[in-house]
Structures are given as C-alpha cells and as structure tokens.
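B., you asked whether I could sanity-check this one before it goes into the benchmark set. Here's the sequence:
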Amino acid sequence: MKRFRLNLAYDGTPYEGWQSQRTEARTIQDELEKALSRLLHQPINLVGAGRTDSGVHARSQTAHFDAVNTRMNGLAFQRGLNSLLPRSIRVLSCQEVSETFHARFSALARVYQYYLQPSEVILPWDRAWVTPAKIPPLATLNAMAHQLHGEQDFTTFSHAQDPSQSRSRFIYQATWFAWRDRVVFRIAGNAFLWRMVRSLVGTMLTFGSRPEPATRFAEALASRDRRMAGPTAPAEGLFLHKVVYHAHEFCL
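And here's what the prediction gave me:
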C-alpha cells in the first residue's frame, strides 16, 4: 500500500462543502473520490486537512489517500485527476509520502483568509464579499483581532450545531491588512470551529462601526454566549489559504 498527499485548490461556490454527506449533496470530497476510484479501479477514502463549509474556497487544501497495487506516481495522479475533475477543482501537486503522514492529524496549523471587496463591482471570476457597508479602519479591526491570540474559548463564535466537545482553540495569528483593492482578514490556528472564522469577521465588522469596539469585542469573547456575536459573514469571501506541517513528514 502507498500513501499519497494532494495539494488542492477549489472554488467552493457550487459545492455543499468539503465533507461527503452521504446524500445527493455535491461535495469536494465526493468529486475527488470518484475521480480517484476511476483512475485506480478501487474504492478510495480521501482524508482532508480542513473540512471547509458550503461555499468556502481553498487556495491550498491538503488531503491524503491510500492506494493498493499501483504503479502510478504523483505526476501521473496530478495529470489524471485534473483530466477527470471539474475545472472548479484543481490538483496543484501530488506526491508519495510516509504512511505516518496524516493530512488532518499531522497538521500544525490551518491558515484562513477572508477577502472583502469595498467596490460594488467585482470581476466574474473573483471571489470576495462585496460588503454592503463601509469597512471600519484597519486599526479599529486589528484592535479586536489581536485579542484572539493564544488559547481561547470561542463559544461566542461557534455554531449551535457544531459537534466539537471543546470550544477552545489556539490562535497563532489574527490580523487585518490591505491587499490590492481589498481588505483581508488572516487567521492561523491549530483548528477552527464550524463557521467560526465567518462569525469573527461578521462580528468585527459590525462592532467596528459602533462606539468602543475593542471593549465590546472583548466582552463578547469573554461571555461565551453566542447571542453576543454579530451576524455571520457569508461564505463567498472565505479561503483556506494553507495548511502547515513539519517538513520532515513529507519525506519517505
């Protein structure tokens, strides 16, 4: 048996998220598993590093799969998959890795970026949230974002249906910055709750237009009460930017 690592990019707009739902819903995982099974003539179970929600995109998602009795190498898998997959999913690279590598459990951090487009006009192939209101100053947004660093209980920014037993997550970086004609929120953490990043974005944008936003945000975070959060930002602006691993885990 051989284990392979995939590096993927996708437009999440036409999909009901990453994870297979065992229903008629179209998912990224289902599309990839169908293509892999056609190439290998065997059932394939794909494991992803991050289970992106419905409509969320990825610039660099990582996944792994195991294949029995195959002579195909990484380049052959990349070319074969890209010939079978819809254009909304692309395999950026594929390589054989050690059987100890696990796309989800070997990951040190996931990095998400949320893109805001202040202009009312966005190119058809771009993905960002065209915000209906004026975006608060970066200094105001960062005064809230910097409170997220370290280990925190994110119950306030969790979804009621999130199955996670613990709401605590460790955040390595949380910052807002300008990029080209957009405003971007970048957050890196060991893991994230369901819709957590979108809830954070929506809350910071809402609080940023009110008096004492940093104080209000700190109170909401400490409350562990979902009713204290602002509205959840839409999925269209959110990207899984990259997944971070130990370099030696890719070595055979």
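One thing to flag: DSSP finds five helices and ten strands in the chain. Otherwise nothing jumped out at me.
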